[in-house]
Amino acid sequence: MKIAVASDHAGFEMKEFICRFLQNEGYQVLNLGTDDCSSVDYPTFADKEAKALLNGQADLGILVCGTGIGISIRANRYKGIRAALLYSDEVAEMAKKHNNANILVFGGRTMSQDDVAKRIRLFLTTEFEGGRHQKRIDLLDAAL
Description:
alpha/beta, Ribose 5-phosphate Isomerase B, Chain: A, 6 helices, 44% helix, globular
């Protein structure tokens, strides 16, 4: 599985941790930046991430900004993207079981590395339940 990872400056250190963690777990990583702690705009990196997933360059994405809120709002503007802010273990599990999220989102300033690693593992080892949940995902992508 190839996982694309991107962040703004506030999420840079956590993004670097996530990239190392994923590589150590045996995943291919597509690092979409940012490349240091210099101030950047999080929508730019949410756009790169969403486009990488929608173009088939990666199977799953992970985004990080200071809180995870802004970058997830931007990513979710793309049809077909289901970015979920994994602020608890239960949410990490349900984001897979019920929502089949395709972008995991974390707060670089609000979450610990241990919690992020735990939630990534939890998400990746949980199965999507399908059924009525697939129907709801289809409704998310229906034209408004």
